[in-house]
Amino acid sequence: MLPLYLSPLGPPPKEDGSADLQHVLTVASDIGKSIENYTVIVNKSTVPVGTAERVTDAITKELKKRGVDVEFDVVSNPEFLKEGDAVNDFMKPDRIILGIESAKAEVYMKELYSPFNRNHDKVHVMGVKDAEMTKYAANSMLATKISFMNEIAGICEQLGVDVENVRKGIGSDTRIGYSFIYPGCGYGGSCFPKDVKALIRTSRESGFEPLLLDAVEERNASQKNVLFQKITDTYGSDLTGRCFGIWGLAFKPGTDDMREATSVVVINSLVKAGATVKAYDPQAMTESLECFDKGLFDDKNLILAQSQYDAVVGADALVLITEWKQFRQPDYKMLHERMNGHTIFDGRNQYNPEFVRGAGFEYFGIGR
Ligand SMILES: NC(=O)c1ccc[n+]([C@@H]2O[C@H](COP(=O)([O-])OP(=O)(O)OC[C@H]3O[C@@H](n4cnc5c(N)ncnc54)[C@H](O)[C@@H]3O)[C@@H](O)[C@H]2O)c1
Ligand SMILES: O=c1ccn([C@@H]2O[C@H](COP(=O)(O)OP(=O)(O)O[C@H]3O[C@H](CO)[C@@H](O)[C@H](O)[C@H]3O)[C@@H](O)[C@H]2O)c(=O)[nH]1
Predict the structure, then answer these.
(1) Is 160 annotated as a binding residue?
(2) What is the CATH number of the domain that holds 114?
């Protein structure tokens, strides 16, 4: 048996954006209290640069208290899986990052990953701090691509350009690529928002001003308001008596996770402006009960619909927030019959504007 201890804890973000390492350090202390023989402590969490050193200190402290001298190594092995595709990402990783300072630990880690590393060598061995930083840099790079495209979308909209054509046009350049350049109503989830904020914090603490990362974060916060902005531009700021059907609550398709989901921002803004909201999501209905003030449900300002078509009954407009496959090709005739007004706000550019307009709807996308 390999002498490994894998830690996939979720250090929650503190109010200032930094990662709260309390749980990670508690677990480190627990390990220090219990290990008897050589152990490799593998950190799979996304944690700030320098955490492995703090984990080492916490374990050493406990070993000293016990008066024992047990050999151990701390390895940084960040996880790159995506929600909704986790098993596939884990079984077929693009790369395996190993932040290791000891040859002994490297042998064990390579053995651990050997079943996932047969086709070609995907292992990159580097310093522990380098590995910790690699995870933040990867997520921040992806978030930057999205915020960049959302910024381009905003400019396109002003100029009467269709950002979807621009997306395909630039994606075909292999240096840019097609992935993570879909404009939309903002990125959410448990990783990008938290990790960009944490890297901003780390950077500032280190004395380096993170100008670009600040902008990535600011663009995303603003992007989550774009749909509400388009709605109030259409109906005015007082939405009393208006009803909106929302398709999609999860932060992305394929999960019921609503952490940092754009739906929460949009729905709270709509209700605050006086509107009633009917929402439907294929997986996140139960989760959504925890994500809004109970009063919204009690006062029937927010109603959870039985189906995607129930959500639009009597609605002034349909607002698409999460691009689940089942929302891709709606029955426009049924929508037309059930809705009160005939407008679609497409937060993920899922629909062909000409087709939607041809079906008798007013269409608003992102950057087109
Ligand atoms: N969610 C993802 O897709 C994903 C992908 C890659 C990396 N990560 C990183 O992995 C880490 C975990 O993320 P998550 O989304 O799974 O978080 P999560 O909050 O869903 O899960 C964290 C788990 O840790 C447990 N835990 C907390 N304190 C503990 C303690 N003291 N002892 C034992 N268990 C404890 C919690 O009960 C929970 O089950 C984070 O650092 C995150 O950035 C997440
Ligand atoms: O072109 C794009 C791609 C994604 N998104 C949004 O970006 C967010 C994140 O999407 P995704 O990356 O698919 O989800 P996560 O499960 O959060 O995965 C990210 O975060 C994980 C946790 O760190 C990493 O392990 C993964 O590699 C990284 O992709 C979602 O709100 C998407 O809607 C866009 O707006 N446009």
Answers:
(1) no
(2) 3.40.50.720
